[in-house]
Write a structure and sequence with these properties.
- By secondary structure, this protein is of the alpha+beta class.
- It has two domains: about 5-90, Phosphorylase Kinase, domain 1 (2-Layer Sandwich); about 130-310, no CATH class.
- It is about 40% helix and about 10% strand.
- It is built from nine helices and ten strands.
- It has helices at about 5-20, 50-60, 105-115, 130-140, 145-155, 220-225, 230-245, 255-280, 290-305, and strands at about 20-25, 30-35, 40-45, 80, 85-90, 90-95, 185, 195, 200-205, 210.
- A five-stranded antiparallel sheet has the order 1-2-3-5-4.
- It is globular, with a radius of gyration of 20 Å.
C-alpha cells in the first residue's frame, strides 16, 4: 500500500469513528496521523509489532490510567496495508510557538501519577521501549565525521542499561535510589507527548509504555538542562512539581543526579545521534543546538575517561 492509499484508508477509518473528513497532521516521518472530527487515527511506524501494541492498548484503557494516559476510542489494533492503526480522541497539543506557555508543572505531576501506578494493577506489559532506542539511533550513524565519532565514543562510555527490577546504572546494590527501577514508565516522554483533552493535560503515545527505570521519563528535560539548552528555572519548575506530586524516580529532596546522570547522558547521546544523522541526510552543517549536543557527548567522554574499567554497551 503506497502512502496515498494508506492515507485514504486512514480517512475511511476516521470517518467511521469521527464522522468527518480527515486531514493529515504533521508528525515524525515514520508515523502518519489523520484527524477526523473528534478522533485522530494513527498509523504506527513500519515494523511495529502487533502483540506489544495490543498489550499497551489494553493497559492504557485500564481504569488505573484514567486521567493520566489518553484512553483510546477503541482498544482494537487495526491494519492498513502493512501498518498497525489505532484510534484516539483528538486533543490540543502543546503550542511549540509559545515555549513560555509549556505546561512543565502539569507534566511533572502527570509523570508522578503515572509512576505511582503499580505495574501489577495493569494487564501485563513488556519492558519500556525507550532505552533501546539509544543503541538503534547510534547504529544508524556512520563513522566518518568528527561528530559521528564523538557520539559513538560517548555511547561506548555509557554503563550497560539495567534490566527491569534490577538496580539502575549508577545505583549500588541495596543502596537508596529513591525509585523502583521496575516501575511503570512512559518510555519516550517529551512535551510533544501531551495534549489537552478536553480541558486537562494528559499523556499520549503508548508506543514505548512498559516496565523500566522511571528516571528515563525525566531524562530528556534533564539532558537539555545539563547541556545548557533548558533554562534552570524551567527545569526546577518541572522537577519541583514532580517531587511535590510524590514522584518516585528521584529522591524527594536533595541532589537528584545520582538517579538522573546516566539516563540523561544516554538521552544526550540519542539526541545527538539523531541530530547528526538528520544533518547528514539533509547535506547541511550542524546547527547551533546540534553542535551543543555533540559537545555534550565530548564532555561525557571526558567525564567517563575511565570508562574502560566499567561494563559498557
Amino acid at each position: 500500500m503506497d502512502s496515498e492509499d494508506l492515507i485514504d484508508e486512514l480517512r475511511r477509518i476516521g470517518a467511521r469513528y469521527g464522522g468527518a473528513p480527515g486531514t493529515v497532521l504533521p508528525t515524525r516521518p515514520d508515523v502518519i496521523i489523520v484527524r477526523a472530527g473528534s478522533v485522530v487515527v494513527k498509523a504506527h511506524a513500519p515494523g511495529a509489532e502487533r502483540e506489544p501494541l495490543v498489550e499497551r492498548m489494553r493497559a492504557t484503557a485500564h481504569p488505573a490510567l484514567r486521567g493520566i494516559m489518553l484512553e483510546p476510542v477503541t482498544e482494537e489494533v487495526m491494519t492498513a496495508g502493512d501498518r498497525l492503526v489505532t484510534v484516539w480522541p483528538a486533543g490540543t497539543p502543546v503550542d511549540h510557538a509559545d515555549p513560555d506557555a509549556a505546561p512543565w508543572e502539569a507534566a511533572g505531576r502527570l509523570l508522578a501519577r503515572l509512576h505511582a501506578v503499580p505495574v501489577r494493577a495493569l494487564p501485563p506489559l513488556r519492558a519500556a521501549g525507550g532505552p533501546a532506542r539509544v543503541a538503534s539511533t547510534v547504529a544508524r550513524l556512520g563513522d566518518r565525521s568528527a561528530a559521528e565519532l564523538a557520539v559513538r565514543r560517548a555511547f561506548t562510555c555509557l554503563p550497560a542499561p539495567s534490566a527491569p527490577g534490577t538496580n539502575p546504572p549508577g545505583t549500588a546494590p541495596g543502596g537508596s535510589s529513591g525509585a523502583a527501577p521496575g516501575g511503570l514508565t512512559h518510555g519516550d516522554w517529551h512535551m510533544g507527548q501531551m495534549v489537552r483533552a478536553p480541558d486537562e493535560w494528559i499523556l499520549i503515545d503508548i508506543d514505548d509504555l512498559g516496565v523500566g527505570d522511571q528516571a528515563w521519563d525525566l531524562s530528556r528535560p534533564a539532558a537539555w538542562f545539563a547541556a545548557g539548552l533548558l533554562e534552570p528555572e524551567v527545569w526546577h519548575r518541572f522537577l519541583g512539581a514532580y517531587r511535590a506530586a510524590g514522584g518516585v524516580a528521584v529522591p524527594p529532596d536533595g541532589d537528584p543526579w545520582g538517579r538522573l546522570e546516566v539516563p540523561a547522558q544516554a538521552m544526550t547521546v540519542q539526541l545527538a545521534a539523531a541530530a547528526v544523522a538528520a544533518a547528514g541526510r539533509e547535506g547541511r552543517p550542524l546547527d547551533e543546538v546540534e553542535e551543543v549536543l555533540v559537545e555534550s557527548c565530548l564532555r561525557i567522554v571526558r567525564h567517563r575517561s575511565a570508562c574502560h574499567s566499567v561494563p559498557t554497551q
